[in-house]
Write a structure and sequence with these properties.
By secondary structure, the protein is α/β, with parallel strands linked by helices. It contains 5 helices and 4 strands; from the N terminus they run E-H-E-H-H-E-H-E-H. The protein is globular.
Length: 199
């Protein structure tokens, strides 16, 4: 049976609301750093292949069987070098920053999690792992969200204030991430980051 058409193609139309930015600002800029390294699909985590998305090899479709050490090295560069460079740049300039962080990635890199926590940067959850939520079953996705929230509470000291999955949500994600249950491991009701750079 066909479902009703449930997409909003109109939105606010010609009458957008006034966001009332501080000091009458007309533009809000949100700087975001993605932190995924160590949570992407990998041989070590049971997928049987190395993630090559966002690497030089991705567009070449080389089809490496098993571990792709070049792709692994590019991800590792991000956590070992790139992260720290960006942190220095933003801290030196006293600029706010939102981390689109995968919970498992930060769990596997305690110094990075501690640096984010110390800086006071807000975290928008990029999922438990850097995987495609729309491929998960309803039950598995709910478990991933639960694990991610609990992980962030431990690694950065608080629940994520937003949620943004790799390549966007599944049809179930909004219902999970907008439902505040009695459990402390249910995300807060938003699907994008709602706070920038608490300092």
């Amino acid at each position: 049976m066909a479902r009703g058409y449930d997409r909003d193609l109109i939105g606010y139309g010609a009458n957008p609301p006034n966001p009332k930015w501080p000091n009458g600002a007309r533009l809000a800029v949100n700087f975001v750093m993605n932190y995924e390294e160590g949570s992407e699909p990998s041989v070590q985590d049971g997928e049987g292949y190395t993630e090559t998305g966002l690497t030089e090899a991705h567009a070449l479709n080389q089809g490496v069987k098993g571990r792709d050490l070049a792709a692994e090295g590019m991800f590792e560069y991000g956590s070992r070098v790139g992260f720290w460079r960006l942190m220095r740049l933003f801290l030196e300039r006293r600029l706010p920053l939102t981390i689109f962080g995968c919970a498992l990635a930060l769990e596997r890199h305690p110094p990075a999690a501690a640096a984010i926590r110390k800086a006071g940067f807000d975290v928008c959850s990029h999922g438990w792992r850097w995987i495609k939520h729309y491929e998960l079953s309803r039950t598995t996705e709910r478990e991933h969200i639960r694990k991610a929230v609990a992980s962030f509470e431990k690694s950065v000291g608080e629940r994520p204030l937003g949620w943004y999955c790799r390549y966007g949500p599944s049809v179930n994600t909004p219902s999970w991430s907008s439902r505040r249950a009695a459990s402390s491991t249910t995300p807060t009701p938003t699907t994008t980051s709602s706070r920038t750079g608490r300092r």
